[in-house]
Fold this sequence. Notes:
This protein is an alpha+beta fold. It has twelve helices and 18 strands. α7 (141-170) crosses α8 and α7 (141-170) packs antiparallel against α9 (217-245).
Amino acid sequence: MPNYPSAPRHGGFVAGEPSLPPSRGSLSAQQHRGRPSWCPPPAPQEAAARFYPLHALSVANIPNSSRGKTSARSSTAPTPEGLQGRRCKLLEEDSPMAQAGRRQRQRYVTKVGKCQVNLGNIQDKKRFLSDIFTTIVDLKYRWFLFVFMMCYVVTWVVFGFIYFLDAWMRGDVWHQGDPEWQACIENVDGFVSALLLSVESQRTIGYGTRMVTANCAEGVILLIAQSIVGSMIDAMMVGCMFVKISRPKKRAQTLIFSKNCVISLRDEKLCLMFRVGDLRESHMVDAKIRAKLIKSRQTAEGEFIPLEQSELNLGYDTGEDRLFLVEPQIICHVINRHSPFWDMSAESLRREQFEIIIILEGIVEATGMTCQARTSYTEDEILWGYRFEPCMSLEKGAFQVDYSRFEMTFEVQTPAASAKELQELRELEQQEHSTLSLYWDQLVQPCALPGPGQDSLLGMAVPATAPGQDSLLGMAVPATAPAQDSLGMAVPASTAQGGRDEPAQRDCPA
């Protein structure tokens, strides 16, 4: 589509409108593949309308609450051929091959931001023990609670056993109720009582019935050691619990992304866009967003690179990647020469397999911790020829955000060609326009002022000795000219005699 009309058009496409050929493969061949024998092939205009959608108005506030891909001709009554074509399309989408292809699609990052990568065959696992704090915090809650309880239970049991062993070796167990016996640990007559002494000592309960006396030095040392170990366990476990509860990962649950990406024109450039929003009133400080393209490829040397990561520019050079995330914002990636989608059209998009990872980072205003939210978009979650509907309005002196319209999109007129083909078409049009402008400038260029021996209209050289002028064109005519043409123009004598005239000298193009 060389020219992008600003006025709306209704009901189909203009006959004779130029269209760009698909960049890769044939559309008809792809549509016939997997089609039942009784299904008729789609009409050319139907295929064109699929990739050149029309909309009544390319404005944002359109009363359209549906998120489905609604055709511009949906208001007309369906014909039997259209119903048969829709039935064939449904059968193609519900075929076992199509469902198997969708089931086999494995995401690199889920929609909620979880990375689908499992690490295995790690030989040097002692590295995890060197960073025991991070290892405990990264545990799942069921394992974290298990470790939390076992740290206290093990220390209580170990020190209780030591207390019972000391009392048994010194004979305190066998002299219970003897007033003349100087016991090291009073009121310990078994392992259970020694365990209660351990719990009361470490948790500083102090019921007063069981205690360590000054009659033995080892009892005092055991009490000091248990107090120190208990304080260390309290510091580590309480710290791990606090960090795990207040992790900024939970703050990322209130950062939302749109379910789909859209591709449409913005400022006459093809752009990939998605929407991001924050549900909390406490804002993210210094929020930054970036995007990665995950795609496998094979090099020219035959090397296969699985899941290669390439950067998508979201405005890093202009600072547009730094967000003031107060209201939902539409993030735009301009598809230019440096974009990996430079030569990707609407048709080739359906045959590609890639994944776009979106990473939003910022500082939580309440805690000062860095938060990261992630999501991903696969190729089947990109809508070509759509735009997001606005979700903000002015009510009672403030801007109101309607998150029920956060996911809504509407269809706009978008060429199905790639950005590379559109750029080449624009350059060709500019070249043709410049050629026509140059030719027109030569046509309307003002003539040079005639000299003393030139014609005032055509600038033809006239002999200086011409005594007369032509009555019609005012051209100088030699007095001795024996012949004139039908317009009264002077004819040189050499021409009248059958000789060859010299070429005319003109300042303006013919």
